[in-house]
Specification:
234 residues; alpha+beta; Glutaredoxin; Glutathione S-transferase Yfyf (Class Pi), Chain A, domain 2; 2 domains; globular; Glutathione_S-Trfase
Length: 234
């Protein structure tokens, strides 16, 4: 049994999609990050970094319970555990390369682009330009790579596609103000539409909506999501 700790944001969405694609038995545990539930001692025992997603595998190696945190680590762990969505052995170097591209580039720059356009105080034009343009550059890299391809790695749908989908799904927030945010990236747009049309994707979205999370962006939310902004200067 996989105990899945989540909030309906891009990184947990990847794990939700993997779980729905594979049909792994799971128990969902909502963590309302807008209320600060990620900072509790109970959750820190699951992920010391205080972020979602995280999982507890109650039937880990040698039958013991194990924790796994960070979306990329979870996808690799579950892919190896099930033997599913990992592509061909010959494609392993390519799979790892694209997973790290997403984990260290596409994800962080997309996240910061969203933050500085939607959450940060006005007047930080340099930061907005920097992160948005870098996110768009990562879109362009994927777009060029996907020309003539159906999937990111080899000829099979893999955890690389699942990982990228989690963030490309937020293109409208990354490219704020664009009516069709993926229009300049036609190969990426085609790929995203194909992944988004999979039956498991609809089930993953339903999983993420299975709990009523706090939606008010008040001072409690800001302190919960960005605690270091309020920490005393050391």
């Amino acid at each position: 049994m996989i105990r899945f700790y989540f909030h309906p944001t891009p990184n947990p969405a990847k794990v939700a999609l993997f779980l729905e694609e594979t049909g792994l038995a799971c128990e969902t545990v909502p963590v309302d990050t807008s209320k600060g539930e990620q900072h509790t001692a109970a959750f820190r025992a699951v992920n010391p970094n205080g972020k979602v997603p995280a999982i507890i595998d109650t039937e880990g190696p040698s039958g013991r319970e194990v924790r796994v945190f960070d979306s990329t680590a979870i996808l690799l762990y579950l892919g190896e555990k099930t033997g599913q969505l990992m592509g061909l052995p010959a494609d392993r170097p390519e799979l790892l390369s694209w997973l790290m591209f997403i984990a260290s580039g596409l994800g962080p720059f997309s996240g910061q682009s969203v933050h500085f356009q939607h959450a940060a105080p006005p007047g930080l034009d340099y930061a907005v330009t920097r992160y948005r343009r870098e996110a768009e550059r990562h879109y362009q890299v994927l777009d060029q790579h996907l020309q003539g391809r159906d999937f990111i790695v080899g000829d099979q749908y893999t955890i690389a596609d699942i990982s990228a989908w989690g963030w490309i799904d937020r293109a409208a927030r990354v490219r704020k103000g664009e009516a069709e945010p993926l229009a300049p990236f036609p190969a990426l747009q085609r790929w995203f539409a194909a992944v988004d049309a999979r039956p498991a994707t609809a089930r993953a979205r339903a999983m993420l909506k299975s709990h009523a999370f706090k939606s008010v962006n008040d001072d409690e939310t800001k302190r919960a999501l960005f605690p270091t902004n309020y920490a005393p200067i050391v």
